UniProtKB/TrEMBL annotation:
<keyword id="KW-0378">Hydrolase</keyword>
<dbReference type="GO" id="GO:0030203">
    <property type="term" value="P:glycosaminoglycan metabolic process"/>
</dbReference>
<dbReference type="InterPro" id="IPR015883">
    <property type="entry name" value="Glyco_hydro_20_cat"/>
</dbReference>
<dbReference type="InterPro" id="IPR025705">
    <property type="entry name" value="Beta_hexosaminidase_sua/sub"/>
</dbReference>
<dbReference type="InterPro" id="IPR029018">
    <property type="entry name" value="Hex-like_dom2"/>
</dbReference>
<comment type="similarity">
    <text>Belongs to the glycosyl hydrolase 20 family.</text>
</comment>
<dbReference type="InterPro" id="IPR017853">
    <property type="entry name" value="GH"/>
</dbReference>
<dbReference type="InterPro" id="IPR015882">
    <property type="entry name" value="HEX_bac_N"/>
</dbReference>
<feature type="domain" description="Glycoside hydrolase family 20 catalytic">
    <location>
        <begin position="301"/>
        <end position="445"/>
    </location>
</feature>
<feature type="active site" description="Proton donor">
    <location>
        <position position="292"/>
    </location>
</feature>
<dbReference type="Pfam" id="PF00728">
    <property type="entry name" value="Glyco_hydro_20"/>
</dbReference>
<dbReference type="GO" id="GO:0016020">
    <property type="term" value="C:membrane"/>
</dbReference>
<dbReference type="Pfam" id="PF02838">
    <property type="entry name" value="Glyco_hydro_20b"/>
</dbReference>
<feature type="domain" description="Glycoside hydrolase family 20 catalytic">
    <location>
        <begin position="129"/>
        <end position="294"/>
    </location>
</feature>
<protein>
    <recommendedName>
        <fullName>beta-N-acetylhexosaminidase</fullName>
        <ecNumber>3.2.1.52</ecNumber>
    </recommendedName>
</protein>
<dbReference type="GO" id="GO:0005975">
    <property type="term" value="P:carbohydrate metabolic process"/>
</dbReference>
<dbReference type="GO" id="GO:0004563">
    <property type="term" value="F:beta-N-acetylhexosaminidase activity"/>
</dbReference>
């Protein structure tokens, strides 16, 4: 038994839900180019003839509990397709499964003649982890807002729910801050390798955040501090001290810069920046970096991070930081992002988690999409070794860090650092297929993971990526 998408199909969405209607429009926009069908979107009307596709929010009681915030149930019969969820985010995930069940030609930007059939059956699906992210490094290589939206689409396709934007680093400051014009006039004008850099206006960040939110993806903005701040200090020299002279930097070393810990000018700056970033992004988290502050003693680092965390909380956000914060004093409710290779720093992270911190796992030797696939590759770094597709897939979050309580793992993140990138094509070569390894690790139940099956399913994605114009590594 199959269902076939026909020219007269309509998309009926949960009455009274603007979010469901928006998801219906997003689905229609995905299906119209290849099919050439009009696919009107309208509120579901039980008295009308079957629409073809229905996106409903009628999961209730035990089923709603089972589906949670992002789960969905997909039923395909000869009469039509129904996606049901308890929350709008579930519909957003469900339409991507429907898209995957259609023939690969559905990815074409031009009209194609194909039999738009979907196999019949029912699927109940929900994510394993509540945080499933990818970070994009705008600082080492600048990406425009349109390019970032392209990555949001990639994340939506594989059911991610967080886009982490690394907005600042030694090589560039990428976000407009009112009252601090030199950040963008000077701080934004560099990137790795000497290119022109660039920055987003506040409206750009608002717009990308809204585009992601319509796809039920939360933007987590990161302002890295106290290290990784060369670009900010070049723009505002009073932010530095330690008798170090700051010059624009386009290399790829880390750990040499720091905001001045003892200066009130530093905290006045943080209050402005964090306040504005908090107001621009509705999500719960604000990431303050905290990694590789190699010029600071542990004492000075703690003094700084204590004050920075207080400022984040004052502006109504939950602190997120790289796991080095575990070596200082994470505030209650802080989320630590573990990024090292091997089990390095497992002890301090596990101790912080036992004291109540939550942990997002981004182990460099598995989820760093900027690691080279293999020796001899043009793209990617190798400081955490090479990460082939199997290495990116075969690890287990619940037991990855010795001593880390399983319930403290909030989720998993893929990281795309930009040191070796010069274009979106470079980025997609590193991202695909490893984005899917991290997606499956974050979404699917532990017992459903299976490398031979995954490897075969990656190859099945190739015709979709070819038609969608997505670059990838044939691995
Ligand atoms: C380490 S991950 C860094 C980044 C680099 C990355 C390159 C982390 C918190 N710090 O500054 O871009 O390695 O792989």
């Amino acid at each position: 038994m199959t269902w076939t998408l026909t020219p007269d199909a309509r998309i009926a969405t949960a009455p009274g839900s603007a979010a469901a209607a928006r998801t219906g429009e997003i689905l229609a926009a995905l299906l119209r180019p290849a099919t050439g069908y009009p696919l009107p979107v309208a509120p579901y009307d039980p008295a009308a003839a079957p629409a073809g596709i229905a996106l409903l929010l009628d999961a209730a009681g035990a089923e709603a509990g089972e589906l949670g915030a992002e789960g969905y149930r997909l039923d395909v019969t000869a009469a039509g397709v129904t996606v049901r969820a308890a929350q709008p985010a579930g519909l957003s995930r469900g339409i991507q499964t429907l898209r995957q069940l259609l023939p690969a030609e559905i990815e074409s930007a031009q009209r194609v003649d194909a039999a738009w059939t979907v196999p019949g059956g029912s699927v109940t699906d929900r994510p394993r982890y509540e945080y499933r992210g990818m970070s994009l490094d705008l600082a080492r290589h600048y990406f425009t807002p349109a390019e970032a939206r392209r990555f949001v689409d990639h994340l939506a396709r594989y059911k991610y729910n967080v886009l982490h934007l690394h907005l600042t680093d030694d090589q560039g400051w990428r976000i407009e801050i009112d009252g601090r014009p030199e950040l963008t006039a000077i701080g934004a004008s560099t990137q790795v390798g000497g290119g022109p850099g660039g920055f987003w206006t506040q409206d750009d960040l608002r717009a990308v955040t809204a585009y992601a939110a319509e796809r039920h993806i939360t933007v987590v903005p990161e302002i890295d501090m106290p290290g990784h701040t060369n670009a900010a200090i070049v723009a505002y020299p009073e932010l530095g001290c330690d008798d170090r002279k700051y010059e624009p930097y386009t290399g790829i070393e880390v750990g040499f810069s720091s905001l001045c810990v003892e200066s009130e000018a530093t905290y006045a700056f943080l209050d402005e920046v964090i306040g504005q970033i908090a107001a621009l992004t509705p999500g719960p988290y604000l990431h303050i970096g905290g990694d590789e502050a190699l010029t600071l003693s542990a004492e000075r680092y703690k003094v700084f991070m204590d004050r920075a965390q207080t400022i984040v909380e004052k502006h109504g956000k939950r602190v997120m930081a790289w796991h080095q914060l575990a070596g200082a004093a994470p505030v209650p409710g802080a989320v630590l992002e573990y990024w090292n290779q091997g089990k390095e720093d497992a002890d301090i992270v596990a101790a912080a988690a036992r004291a109540g911190a939550k942990v997002v796992l981004a182990p460099a030797d598995h989820t760093y999409l900027d690691m080279a696939y293999a020796a001899g590759e043009r793209l990617g770094l190798k400081w955490a070794g090479t990460v082939d597709v199997k290495q990116s897939y075969t690890w287990e979050p619940a037991t990855h860090l010795p001593g880390l309580p399983e319930e403290s793992v909030l989720g998993v993140e893929a990281a795309l650092w930009g040191e070796t990138l010069t274009s979106v094509a470079d980025a997609e070569y590193l991202v695909f297929p490893r984005l899917l390894s991290v997606a499956e690790t974050a979404w699917s139940p532990r017992e459903a993971k299976d490398w031979p099956s995954f490897e075969a399913r990656i190859t099945e994605q190739h015709p979709r990526w070819d038609r969608a114009g997505i670059g990838y590594a044939k691995r």
